[in-house]
Each structure stands twice: as C-alpha cells, then as structure tokens.
Amino acid sequence: MALNIKHQDNIFFVEGTIDATTAKQFKNHLEFLILYTKALTININGVNAIDSNGMKALRGLNTTALISNKAFSIIGYGCKDIYDDFQLNNVA
C-alpha cells in the first residue's frame, strides 16, 4: 500500500503502511522536514502497520531531530508501543 503524508496545522498525517517498501522514502522526506522546520509532529492514526524497517526509520528520525536540536513528536493510536520500543533501544 502506498504511503501518504498530508500536512495540516503543523502536523503531518501519515496514512498507509510503513514497511520495507516505504520506510526509506518516508525517512528521507521527514528528515528533510526536520532540517527545515523548528519542530516536527507526525500523527500515525492512519498507519495500518509498521514493521521493523518502519521502526528503524522512526528511530532514525528521532536521532536526526536530537542531533539537529529540533522537537520531534509522534502522536496517535499506537504511540505507546513506539515509545516503549524507543525506551527499550535506549537502554540496550
């Protein structure tokens, strides 16, 4: 399934599946936005599934935001699972 990213009120709404076929394009697009905005908020309510490639892309975006000293937020259904994954990887 194709991945769509829509922008409204400084929030980027992601729809589709973040997997091996879409993760690289997703990460590249949002990394560009992180570098040229003050903050980036993505809403994942429209995401059907995220595989390990998608989680790697999200972790990479988080790292880019930290290095660039930019705010990065993920909101929507499923955020707790993503947050837990980020915390688990930071502990290891």
Write a structural description.
Strands 1-2-3-4 form a four-stranded mixed β-sheet, covered by helices on one side. With 92 residues, the chain is α/β, with parallel strands linked by helices. A hairpin with a 2-residue loop joins strand 1 and strand 2 (11-18). The model has no long low-confidence stretch (mean pLDDT 88). The protein is built from three helices and four strands, in the order ββαβαβα. The protein is globular. Helices cover 48% and strands 33% of the residues. The N and C termini lie far apart (33 Å). The protein has helices at 23-36, 52-68, 79-91; strands spanning 4-8, 11-18, 39-50, 71-75.
Oligomer: single chain
Q: Tell me the span between the first and last alpha carbons.
A: 33 Å
Largest sheet: 4 strands, mixed
Question: What is the global morphology?
Answer: globular
Task: Give a quick rundown of the structure.
This protein has 92 residues and is an alpha/beta fold. The protein is 48% helix and 33% strand. It has three helices and four strands; from the N terminus they run E-E-H-E-H-E-H.
Please name the defining characteristics of this protein.
92 residues, 4-stranded mixed sheet, 33% strand, globular
